[in-house]
Structure formats: C-alpha cells, structure tokens
Design brief:
This protein is mostly helical and about 110 residues long. It has one domain. It has 7 helices and no strands. α4 packs across α5 and α4 (about 40-60) packs parallel to α7. The chain starts with a helix and ends with a helix.
Length: about 110
C-alpha cells in the first residue's frame, strides 16, 4: 500500500516519514516483508484520501503536492501533510480544502 501510493502520488518517503511510518521502520518492514500496522494503515489511508481530494480541488497532482507541503499559518507553520498524523488534523485539512473548493469559481 505504502509503495504503490508513494509511486502514484510522487510524495517522497521523506514527506511521509513523520506522518505514516519512520524510514527505519519502513526499511525493517520491507526486509521482513511485513505490512503496515493498523494505525499506520489508518494514517496511510488518511493521506491517500486527502491527497485525492487535494488533486480534485487544486486541479493537478503537482499543485496538490505543493499545497500539502506548504507551511500554513492556521496550523502554526505546520504543513497540511504534517497535520495528517491525526484524524482531527486530517479533518482540519479536509475543511481547508473544502473552503478552497467553495471559493473557487466553477
């Protein structure tokens, strides 16, 4: 799941390391051919869902990646991607994207 999303989204392991799984833990899992834990899978699914919404709202994968990486004042300088570590943070990012979508002309 992690590798497929990583390849499709072009979000780097560096982008996702503090949100989904550490680089070291990911390396161990790959070596042992283990899957993500339930919590890691939840975070990965949250990132994938928000990434898809960002692409839909912002128009391109490139714009979505840029927006997800950009520090934001409303989150004390944290990037939207960093907010996705928790469900509450994910909902805040989703609300921000919905506000962008509402404000954009059709």
């Amino acid at each position: 799941m992690f590798d497929r999303f990583n390849a499709r989204s072009r979000l780097t392991v560096e982008d996702l390391k503090d949100v989904v799984i550490s680089v070291r833990a990911l390396k161990r899992r790959r070596e042992r051919q283990k899957t993500l834990t339930m919590n890691e899978s939840d975070r990965m699914a949250r990132v994938a869902r928000i990434y898809a919404l960002a692409v839909q709202v912002l128009g391109t994968p490139r714009k979505a990646r840029q927006w997800l990486r950009m520090p934001a004042i409303q989150w004390e300088g944290k990037a939207p991607l960093a907010m996705l570590r928790s469900e509450i943070g994910g909902r805040a990012v989703e609300r921000a994207l919905c506000l962008i979508q509402v404000r954009e002309p059709a």
